[in-house]
Amino acid sequence: MCVPGGMDGGTCSFLSTRKTLMHKHFSSKVSFLAILSLAGSTFVAPAVAHGQQAPVADVIDMSLADNSASDIAADVDPVQSGAPVVQQDPILGKPVISFDGQRDALGFEVGDKFDELKDGFAVECTFRFDGDFDGNEKSLCANKESGGWALAIYDNDLTFTVHVDGSYKQAKMEMQPGQWYHAVGVFDGEKSQLFVNGEQAAENLEATGEMTLPENGATQFIIGGDSGSDNTPQFYSDATFASARLWTEPLSAEDIASLYDAAELTTEESASIVSSTPAEGDHITRPFILDVELNNPDLVARDLEIRLDGEEVELGETIGAGLEEGEHTLEISGHDVFGNPIAESINFTSGNLPGTAGTDTEQGEDGVGISARAENPSGGDLETTFTKANLATAQGGFQGTVNEIPESLDFDYEEGADFQTELAPGNTEAQASASTRDLPFQRFDLQLEDAAAETHDVAWSGTVDPKREVRLYVWNVEEEEWEEKAASAGNANAEVSLTAELGQDYVDGESIHTMVLGYDTFADDLNEPVDEQFAEDYDFAIAHHTDTQYLSEGAVEQETEEERAKWKEGYTAATQWVADNADERKIVYSAHTGDIIENWISETNDLDNAKKEFEVASEAQAILDDAGVVNGVLPGNHDNITGREVGADNLYNQYFGPERYQALQGQGGWAEHDASYHPYAEGDNDNHYDLFSAEGHDFIALHLGYDVTDEEAAWADEVLKQYSDRNAIVLTHAYNKPSNNPDGRGADFSHDGRIIFEEIVEKNPNVALVLSGHEHGVSIVTRNDVGQTGNHVIELLADYQFYEIGSDELGLTEIGEYGDDTGLRFGSSYLRLLQFDLENSEVAINTYSPLLDDHNATEYDDRQRYNGHEDELRLPIQLNTRTTSFETSSMVALTDTGEVIGTDTAKSGWGASTTWTGLTAGESYGWYATSRDADADADSAGIARQFGYFTAQEASEEDSAAPTLNVPTEPLRVKAGDTVDLLEGITATDEEDGDITDRIRVIGNVDTSKPGTYSVSYEVSDSAGNQTIASRVVEVTESGSSDNGSSDDGSSDGSSDNGSSGSSGSSAGSSSSNWLSGLLGGILGAAGMGAILTGLLNFFSPGTLNELTNKVLGFFR
Prior knowledge:
- One of its GO terms (molecular function) is carbohydrate binding.
- The chain is built from 15 helices and 69 strands.
């Protein structure tokens, strides 16, 4: 439906206590920045001295005494929605009340004061907005429903709006989240004014005349939201309030200034830094984690940022790699909670801090060549020291499934199994996890040889689907909890690796406890092209239609028969298309989510006219019945007098009662799809559920009419639990609001959304999809971890009722005597087709109007909000066919012994190497490489540390030929913002092993969000340890340039394990060609080839080396 009232026009470590901050939406970065900026300062908001007493409110004056809300002006009892929280604010030093922006609101009845308010009034709210600006209306203090007023947030503007002379008149100013504001709106019949912090901020001189009073039973002054029909709260705000008052008379500027003084938005509190990393004057020699200890985090606003030498950085981020020797500055800027500016800085120095660029291991006859690559920000040489590591490998473990991250070291799980696989480097028998809709896990205990060492590293390698993710958890012995240390999406053609550096907090006696968990990211990143074509390859489809009210109304109320027929056709063309295309388009179910007609929303509506509209709708829906298409309907607020007319005897049930659908069972598609109908109660189709099957999978379609009650929600929960093995689709009228984002993503809950989500969707993990209408526009919500970790739900609003199609296009300009081309609300001639791909657990969605034979309604949106990707898209969907699993090939822990293997000096960016001899074939080994600026003093030089591990192999004299790695010579081009698959078109073969494409590792990163030229390398090794490396240029162009390639996450972090060796980073890159590698390998063997190539790489630049390669090849040809 159209929304009435819518607008026209003690000392603690911060890292360990961030969750306790008062402002629940603070990011870690923001809080840290604020703390730094407040060091040693005291902030007091400026106040104007006024001698007069603050005026006393005569309508509403909210009091928060005794930790509860009450009215001390007229003793009006508050009506509470949700669970707003009253608590003491540590900065204001008085009680405040906080609302969650989802269901919390507080209402005070003021309908008896309407006559006194309409010609002038004033309203005060002292608040802090704790949410995020998302383009949706956020009402603070309001009484607005097709009339009335509000103090609200639109976009990022604090707005006082009053309905006068047919429209809302606004006075507004830009505001910031996380700051306290004292806001007063004044209307005097001649203008509206917005006062902020004691001063006039805006006015609207067009607000002249009497205020239009709120309609539809909206008689409450709502705090934390707005008054909807019958005082149902809407437009909730995530905000905290210190006061709310309402007067029947306008206030003067002097009155408002005295109110601001009384609000006492001042403080003598200050925040200071106890310690920080880095501290003022520190000299940094290695990367560090940004951290701080503080004594008062509550004085902090949310707009603060920190920059290192001008580049934004994050709290908890490991920073420093790439810093050049010299002075550096951390700059902090923003505001405190009262809007006072903040500016602080921390100065420190560093040596040249190398950036790590990967390690390599190369098996040879005379030993194992190990190398490491690092980049010196100065461009100077780097000296690398290679040391031995104690290597612990997982000797088996156990696995199973859970539905939440365990909270203890020993925990309950399902599908349990022990395994004895030794997960060492080079392991050829990967250990597969369970395949499940829940969370598959594998647990490992790594026995350390030197448990007392200060630090250890753990590394996992394995495979996982590109549309899934693996996460590495380590048990923190001190905190007694599992901590996530690393995560990675899968790669279709290569292994991925997870690593973590650990301190003594993670050592339990002689061991480290690790857990790898598979997770379905359920990412809405499938990038469906908008090509106005239905999907070609899918298993079955469901049609969704909603809010046909204007079509039903037009078919009854337009003046001429010809025009009425056109409005009716807008509805019937849709149902006829579904009926005609049920077989071809594999449509197994069709749903209508309410507002079938327009004019049965109020007891004052004409009954005969409403019946005529119901007859039109009934005839249109009968097309589906007669064709045998399994279908269901439900009443919207325009079908059941806004939820007040319910039960078997209501008007809706006279046309769409249970007997209609019971008679269809066993016929046509109902028989074919084993479908059955089940009403909420005898004779009552206000709610119902349908059972049906498609392609061997069972479904339940649960329909809930407008204004869902606790009793109805309990019924629905019981039904879904009864059919917990079926894939569930919830259909309802008012679930989510429209999105204001161009791609339609994101939305708040609508009228029934909160109760359905909390009492039905959250409690039943078989719910995969929610479809709704009610408010015109589109929203797509991919809701993750619903009720339990790993349970995901798709929520789709698709309501086109307000979309306007020109009378010329409809052929109605002359028939309807419109004169000029006029926009008519035929938007609900569009329906949606959801096409399900069971194998990939995806749904392709098309929006189509049979009346217009047109795909996508974007152009007809009266607000022009969207870009086309809201109407044609592809999403993941968690049917019971969608599962997650992964395989582990190695799980190891490394501890540096300090025993030197060798040292080498190399140019920046090139590989330093040494040969490790005296190794035993079949044994696993680990090593560390520590690189430092070769020209700097040892005590002040920056360092970088990497590690590698491998299983030694028998030296082979027979197979010394390196594999052939086929990499295109032309650059790979991709548009900024797009995704890229770096392995597409890359293959590898070997004379002995054959096709070894699956062993290729991608080395290097491409940030597709930033245009530029990147270099990535590819490495592959055969069974004998012979290795080939090749490189390719990737050009990220500005959006709009040509591109190719795709992947799931927009990045290209490479794998770091090829099955026989592992590393802590990407391998050493080289621009030498495959031919040269193979040639030298054939002549000198793998070890000899590695030695020569390393020398060449350290001597020549990449361009010179490529030239040399061509000359060598020419000589041998």
